[in-house]
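Thread title: Can someone regenerate the structure for this chain?

I was given the following input by a collaborator and told the matching structure tokens would be attached. They weren't. Posting the sequence so someone can regenerate them.
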Amino acid sequence: MITLWILLGAVGLIIVWLIATYNGLITLRNRTDEAWSDIDVQLKRRYDLIPNLVETVKGYAGHEREVFEKVTLARTAAINAEKGGNLAEIAKTENMLAGTLKTLFAVAENYPDLKASQNFLQLQDELSDTENKIQASRRFYNGNVRDFNTKMEKFPANMVAGMLGFKSREFFEMEEPAQREAVKVQF
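Best answer:
Regenerated them for you:
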């Protein structure tokens, strides 16, 4: 009889542990999804600001057509990559977009009237703020990915994670070291 109680107690402890581990993994997965959503919101904000910025600069720098086309193409590629959901492709297109934005700001430096334009200054500030928020969102996301992946890889939770189909998440990383910095605008 005592052996039966000990066996039932051991089974009960294992069940409680399984439930706690499962719930912990669900919590971390949802936090990671929420963190990705934060990045998504900021990227969409950036995508919405870019056409306004391009139109403002176009008014002053009409002959710089190639730059505007590259910015537009990079923005479109980034939006399409985000819809695809492939984290590596999103990071790649975001790198490309950041590079074209730097080129756009370099062109804008050649136009003193543009640098003094209130619309341009406001858009520049909003884009700079958005870049800072994207950077903060990436850090938050990567922190959640780290916590989620660490919990999944630790024994014995890794057995539960494997049995229940939890998958590791990828960090949001930039490919080129120069692209790791937010777009800097200096006048």
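The CA atoms of residues 95 and 179 lie 6 Å apart.
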